[in-house]
Amino acid sequence: MTARSIGYARCSTSHQSTDAQVASLKEAGCAVVFQETISTRTSEKDRAQLQAALNALVEGDEFVCSSLSRLGRDQRSVINRLHDLQEKGIHVRTLDGLVSTKAMGKFAPVLIGLLTGLNQIEREQVRDRVLESIQHRKATGQSIGGRPKTNQAKEGLVLRLREEGCSYRSIREQTGLALSTIRRIICDAEVTA
User: Fold this and answer.
1) Can you give the pTM of this predicted structure?
2) Beta pairing class for 32-37 and 91-94
3) Class of 5-107 per CATH?
4) Which residues of 58-87 are buried (b: 16+ CB within 10 A; e: fewer)?
């Protein structure tokens, strides 16, 4: 039986898409690509497509993903996954070019430990910077984020223009608001009327 390349694509939220990862994996020679939208915080046993990909692998196959971060959330889980796969005779390759256990041989665990450790440190630094920014904005009374509210004057203008018979597009041109915002304002006003 010839060795196969089996791909795994994952993104964390529904606002992201695995399409680019899937296309890259297929271009890299993956015969089969498993994909899912799920956080790495989700228990590994509940990541159905990851489990399906791992179960499809046999000795001599190659497991391919876009980067090590697709395999696990922290250094320990990634190293354990790579160790388990290597013990089964399965090679691992990342499309970012950092990992190819077939090419690295026995040196792979050392290099992978270093790379995942650096990745984990960077993730923690990003989280710390975000928390510091939130605390600073709270302390100075700035907006923490989220969708900005439309002020009452603009809402009144939208309703007045609509009552005058203006189209949604005309209202958009006059107010600079998105059509979805205009529709929401008008619908909310109709519901409360």
Assistant:
1) 0.57
2) unpaired
3) alpha beta
4) eeebbbbbbebbbbbeebeebbebbeebbe
